[in-house]
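Late entry, written up from scratch paper. The run itself happened at the end of the previous shift, but nothing got recorded in the book at the time, so transcribing now.
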Amino acid sequence: MPLFASSRRRLRISFIIAISLIFSLVTVAQLNLTYHLLNGYFLSSDAPVNKGKPTLFVFEQAETFGNVFKPATTMSKRPDAVNFTKEMAIGIALPPTNKPPKLSVSKVFVQDSVLTVRYIRIADTTLTNNPQSFTSQPILLFAIPKQVVLKTKLVENGKVVQLLKKREEE
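Output as recorded:
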């Protein structure tokens, strides 16, 4: 009898460990998203931007996207199109500067209905000593597969700089 009770106890403990491991993996699941950069757009002059801080834009519809980002008028290349039935657009706008940094997407993922956008901001060393004679507003614009999210978090070089909550549709 003691041998049977001992094996039953081991089975119960291993079962509890397996269930807790599966539960912890499900709750911490992180879905990495693919993205593609969008070229050929500029920020509209009447876009709602934060003064002195990075601004995050999340677009699920073409109309709101078109109000904030306008296609650049060049004869040689057309702007990259976004398929809003399958994708959503993410935009990051920095304050105007005469020393624009280089921006690149580090990672985009969804965890617990929170979309996290991590990007890297690197100072352009060629412009440090010789700034531009005009100011420009650096932007980073890309598209991701459509997601249902409640919040969007913007992380710059490891630091959270903005948190957007989804607005209620009426």
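The radius of gyration is 23 Å.
(Scratch paper discarded after transcription.)
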